[in-house]
Amino acid sequence: MKKLLVTGGAGFIGANFVHYWMAKYSADKVVVLDALTYAGNIANLDSVKDDANFTFVHGNICDQALIETLLVEHSIDTLVHFAAESHVDRSITGPDAFIETNIIGTYSLLKAAKKVWLDGDSILAGHRFHHVSTDEVYGTLSPTDPAFTEDTAYAPNSPYSASKAASDHLVRAYHHTYGLNVTTSNCSNNYGPFHFPEKLIPLVITNILHDTALPIYGDGQQIRDWLYVEDHAYGIDLVLQDGRVGENYNIGGDNEWANIDIVKTISKLVEQEFIKNKDLATRFPAAKAARAQNTESLITYVKDRLGHDRRYAIDATKTNNELSYKPKESFETGIAKTVAWYLNNEAWWQSVMDGSYQNWIAEQYS
Ligand code: NAD
Ligand code: DAU
Hints:
Blueprint: E1 3-7, H1 12-24, E2 29-34, E3 54-58, H2 64-73, E4 78-81, H3 88-93, H4 96-118, E5 128-134, H5 159-178, E6 182-187, E7 189-191, H6 200-210, E8 214-217, E9 223-228, H7 229-242, E10 248-251, E11 256-258, H8 259-276, H9 279-283, E12 299-302, H10 317-323, H11 331-344, H12 346-352, H13 355-365
Parallel strand pairs: 1-2, 1-4, 2-3, 4-5, 5-6, 6-10, 7-9, 8-12
Antiparallel strand pairs: 9-11
Helix pairs in contact: 1-7, 2-4, 4-5, 6-8, 8-11
């Protein structure tokens, strides 16, 4: 039985990981630590909040003393670190929070883990610090370059990816220098339920329903490798169970799409849903599909993102071979589930787009 501290567990991937973990390992104890920034939402954890094995703590990963207390009081043996500022566009307009949370916050967690797990009277056998990182640390690819492997040299291009790269290096150093049991996973773009509507896929779905423009940065030919979020949780599970300490593991969907094609695919899927379910026209009267009009007409080319990476692609051969990893969801099934989730969970996305609700709900738990 494991005792997990999950940082950032009220965010998109963290919450999906907590759902996955508690359904699969119901005897494990799970403590979520989350600062509930604009991206964190306690309602993402509604389905587990009453479970006796679940605890939510409202706090910041930069608070080393708090982390030490949590590690000791809950006898934590496994720390899974999701907490981060995660949106590239925000890192371009305001990098400070990214340096603070992604670098200083990770450093604070490492210091706390070292102090509690390694520096006491005895070393905690079997402890694990798992760091959740991104493919963006490897930089950008041309259309013909081979995909990123774990040996690809780091070349981060945005303040976000540079801050993640810095945190990856600190994690590596704490293993090499102090012997902390670390693993790191570098994953490609996730999509699925609870994805904050500032990111491409949920933004497109919610904008279609509001009948607002679908902004395409630059020429829309940038490529991302999309993975259903539950398959990311599954990959982390395998790394935690069988991954070798001190190693990095790439996790990806082998599923490259140009942005413009993703947007067109989602537009068609939403239209099909409106044809199948007549009730949607009543619930979302603003949507073009409610009037049998062409959703793609909302596509609007806008100024490109500064320093926009052209292509990401993950070569997950090591993870596939060593850990027998294979995503369970195809893109076809994953994106259909995702569109259906947003159509069925209007209350969730309307509420996370309303900051006052988020502040109010955070107060309920502080
Ligand atoms: P997110 O922005 O949806 O969630 C981040 C969570 O961290 C939020 O709940 C937020 O409240 C919390 N948080 C932020 N700062 C904090 C702090 N100082 N202390 C405590 N909690 C804090 O992010 P996400 O998309 O779920 O990403 C989770 C992790 O996965 C990140 O480390 C990100 O770099 C990585 N990642 C994301 C993707 C992706 O496609 N979204 C892909 C690969 C890796
Ligand atoms: O690759 C993993 C990364 O994927 C994670 O590390 C990040 O945390 C996560 O946010 C994501 O980064 P991206 O920048 O790739 O995701 P985003 O959804 O912001 O954008 C996806 C692509 O779509 C990117 O090429 C920019 C483009 N885009 C995005 C938005 C929000 C648009 O063309 N229009 C938009 O309005």
